[in-house]
Amino acid sequence: MTNIWKIYEKAPDDILNELSGYPKIISQILYNRGIKKKEEAHQFFNPDYQKDLKDPFLIFGLKKAVERIILSIEKKERIMVYHDYDADGVCGSIVVASTLRELGVDFKTYTPDRQKDGYGLNKKAIEEIVKNGVDLLITVDCGITNAEEVELLNGSGVDVIIIDHHLPSHILPKAYATVNPKQKECSYEFKDMCAAGVAFKVSSALLHSELGKKRGVKEGFEKWLLDVVAIATIADMMPLLGENRTLVKYGLLVIKKTKRIGLKKLIERALNSKNGITSSSVAFQVAPKINATSRMTHASVSYELLSTESEDLAERLLESVESANNDRRKFVDKAVKDAIFWIEKEISEKGEVSDAIVIGSDEWTPGIVGLVSSRLTERYNRPSFVYGRVGNILKGSCRSINGFNIVEIMDECAQRDASIFKAFGGHAGAGGFSIFENKIQDFKKNILEISKANIKDIPKQPILNIEAEILPEEINYDTYNFIPKFEPFGQGNNIPIFLARGLLVADAKLVGNGSKHLKLKLKSETKGSGVKFFDAVGFNMPEFYGKIAKGGKVDIVFTIEENEWNGRKSLQLKLKDIKLS
């Protein structure tokens, strides 16, 4: 499918003047990230742990939560940490658990089963919580949509503290305290932390409290929690701007020195070297393995791997994680292939893809549908709702596109017909849902109608976001040397992608095993900089070879990277897309 090239709005002259200490193209990239002043740019390029992280007590509900946890510790009440099963929930619960352990507290954890229990609190879990005589339940990465379940716990004498980051529904649970920057009452400036980030704020406040001092908390202990906070922030695709940027920047440093035996082994297996740890390697090689256990077996495996202090147990748990991840790959690839077949069949009949994709199969487990949804949304640039079956309940995940709030769409669907959902929740870009089997047609009808009314002019082709049109003379080491300073890369701060127009094709060939990769020699000639040649490579782009002729001109979208050959370093353009000029 043809990409739409979308170039960011050009920075106004007054902003470029304000940021004039940087190359013009770098100032444009800063502007694209909402940075308009010199001091903001300095802070962006030089994250400072002490200065950038705001006072935790500015978050609504946090003070009340911390006071209740301290009271519970002092009264030696029974505390349980209940967490979601994904990487954010697992890592967030480890933040809370590590903090309680450092404070010398005895507590229990509860890891729900993705397949049997589904997202959030459930009645089976409540029975076990009450049976265990729990006095204080702390939920991590869930709870904000569990009004009924919290009411049941309240009636059984259990106080509930919710630590979450998902969008609240129109009915808020009556928890003892709710710590979620997305609450209407919360004026905390930075809203985009994952649950582990919010848990880190709660933990920081606890560790620096009078109780922490009395119990001899080691100075700087909270910084050792940043390894799992960084993993969760990256895994949950939070924007790597603001406080998240600082948390991840320092978290990546902590990962290299982590004291967690299981995490050490996981990294050694995934990356071979701790020196290779970047936001990208965490996103594609570490986080998926942590997520794989909940998708294929049980999230408690990942929780134990990141918690254990036993070398032998860590080795055994890692084997289980690796096995689950291999199974996950096979199941997802098969499901995506089947889904694309059905969608393409529908497109051939209708002439276009629907405003929203709603698709499911009895063969798909709820553990893989989120990954399938992500791949379909990326391919078709449409919001997708993908489900599998557990008994007579259809459990699914959904992913969205820019400008389309998927939780609000489900909320509107529920307001049309309250009997459709057993449960749903999430944030603007991603969510989960459970619906009753006999309501699937009503669900599909409503989702398609609401999507059509809300999707408006969002194109049905994938969008390639481009930082700026770059002049050939700007493709140099002055530009390239600034790009690593934008790390850590991730959501909201992607590796800069540029557009260059009218480059002459001096040479074109296919290279690599199976001749799958496109290799170009490109030439530009301008009055200001004379003749320049550029090497460009397009991995897995053989289809362009037949369309490109030597001597013809092309417009290219690319990132700039450094290539080393026979001890000689040079800049290389890594192609993302090509069009004939």
Describe this structure in words.
The chain is α/β, with parallel strands linked by helices. It has four domains: 9-44; 51-232, inorganic pyrophosphatase (n-terminal core); 352-463, Roll (Diaminopimelate Epimerase, Chain A, domain 1); 464-580, OB fold (Dihydrolipoamide Acetyltransferase, E2P). It is 41% helix and 21% strand. A hairpin with a 2-residue loop joins β10 and β11.
User: What is the CATH-assigned architecture of the largest domain?
Assistant: Alpha-Beta Complex
- Shape, please? globular
End-to-end CA span: 19 Å
| Total domain modules | 4
Q: What Rg is obtained from the alpha carbons, in whole angstroms?
A: 25 Å
Specify the CATH class of the largest domain.
Answer: Alpha Beta
Strand numbers in spatial order across the main sheet: 3-2-4-5-6
Amount of helix: 40-55%
Number of helices: 20
What structural class do helix, strand and pairing data support? alpha/beta
> What is the typical, i.e. mean, pLDDT?
93
Number of distinct beta strands: 18
Give the CATH topology of the largest domain: inorganic pyrophosphatase (n-terminal core)
Oligomer: single chain
Report the sheet with the most strands, covering strand number, pairing sense and barrel closure: 5 strands, parallel
User: What is the strand content?
Assistant: 15-25%
Low-confidence stretches: none
